[in-house]
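My current task is to audit a protein record that another person submitted. Alongside the sequence sits a line of tokens, each denoting a local backbone shape. Please read both lines and tell me whether the tokens look consistent with the sequence. Do not assume that whoever made the record got everything right. Thanks in advance; the entry in question is below.
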Amino acid sequence: MAHLGATWRREVSRRMIGERAFFAVTALLFAACATVTVVWCTSMSATGEMPMPGGWTMSMAWMRMCGQTWPGAAASFIGMWVVMMVGMMLPSFTPMLWRYRQAVAGTREWRLGWLTALVGVGYFFVWTAFGIAAFMLGNAFAALAMQLPALARTVPIVAGAIVMLAGALQFTAWKAHHLACCRDASGCGLPLRVDGATAWRHGLRLGLHCSTCCAGLTAILLVTGLMDLRAMAAVTAAITVERLAPAGERVARAIGAILVVAGLVLIVRAVGSG
């Protein structure tokens, strides 16, 4: 009995150390990514923005710096996108990652850490793919807007419409389904097998649900100011609250109502100033 009691205590101690390490690593990663994002946004804002027809300004994130190649610009954007998304998504992703650790907690600690890291890498791989798509679309649109003043003048109205549509999306069953999967990872099926390939696929699945669930809110960030720290903070808070609050679906609908009103205000303001 004494031997069993000592073994149980060692196991409990091992798990507690693992739990502390998990939360310490996620906290440090969040702090590092948030700091780098703030520094990046501040330095980019200091370079100024390009005034465009229609009374708006184009972010420097969509333009090459002097002497910068397109591959260099793409690498810089994707690198900062990943850092930004890690900082924005970790508050809501950490509980999902923790549930995975609990589900496979019977494995050895070193293997548990490796599997958890694979889930995280798979998750943010999906966000990286979205960042590549955002860079390509954003740069194509920026080039067109600079060549076609008539197109540039429509941007404030289009931005308001996107905000309004993102708000309407919050009321759909499609949004509710993906939000439910993000709020309860086990509801979407935690993996039964404990191996690297399964952990990677689980991370990809969580990333797809999360990025799809956040599509509207991410679109708002892209059209209202990719380097605007206030917009980042607001989107991060909205994503985190709708994922972690007890009544997540009601919170999502409340956020949707606010966005619909905000979109209408932006459209009216754009039409009035035009």
Q: What stands out?
A: The chain has a mean pLDDT of 84. Residues 2-46 form the longest helix (45 residues). Residues 2-61+68-273 form one domain.
